[in-house]
Amino acid sequence: MHHAQPEGDSCFPGTGTLVWLAVLTLAVFAGLVSLVPPLPAAFTAYLFFTMALITLIDLRHFIIPDVLSLPAIAIGLLASSVLVPEGDRLAGLINGVAGAILGGGAFYLLRAVYFRFRGIEGLGLGDVKLAAVAGAWLGPAALAPACLLATLSAIAGVVLHGVLNGRRAIDARQPIPFGSFIAPAILILWIGQILDLGSLW
């Protein structure tokens, strides 16, 4: 799960993939805008595009570019402060900041402990930043379900990959694009939150 930052835009998908992803993003916005107001639908469309792009890039290159993760933290904090049905934007912002610090801090600590005892990087800094993204968008309360969903999905993916390749045992040294499992988990839980709050707007 090692992530090194890329040079230039070499890790990004081609124009055709980006166009299809943009079309899907517009479809997501159009579908949500009938259920929730335009602003939360727009935030969700942005998150869909970004998490889908991170999933594809990490799956292919084991990289989570800062150009995607860092703005997603800031926009997540904005979403947390703006999309508060009760109108308490400061509380929403504090919740997002607490989530980002908790998510990023927990993954950084896990990374440090793993390196201390195994001598290798179990998590890349890209995963740490993506965990901060999760916290910024979802808040502290949803971090555990997001991590659980991502972990179970990653385990299932590794097992399935091994079965399809005829392996009887899992190689612990095999790199795993964990960001490709964290990103969809963030999106799924965020959409769940938005739909749950939809009746309050």
Features:
201 residues; mainly alpha; 7 helices
In short:
This protein has 201 residues and is mainly alpha-helical. Helix content is 72%, strand content 0%.
Describe the structure.
With 201 residues, the chain is an all-alpha fold. The protein has one domain (15-200). Helix content is 72%, strand content 0%. It has seven helices and no strands. The protein has helices at residues 15-32, 38-61, 66-82, 89-118, 125-138, 143-164, 179-197. Helix 1 packs antiparallel against helix 2 (38-61), helix 5 packs parallel to helix 7 and helix 6 (143-164) crosses helix 7 (179-197). The longest helix is centred in the middle third of the chain and has 30 residues, at 89-118. The chain is globular, with a radius of gyration of 17 Å. The protein starts with 14 loop residues before the first helix and ends with a helix. The relative contact order is 0.15. Residues 1-8 have low confidence and may be disordered.
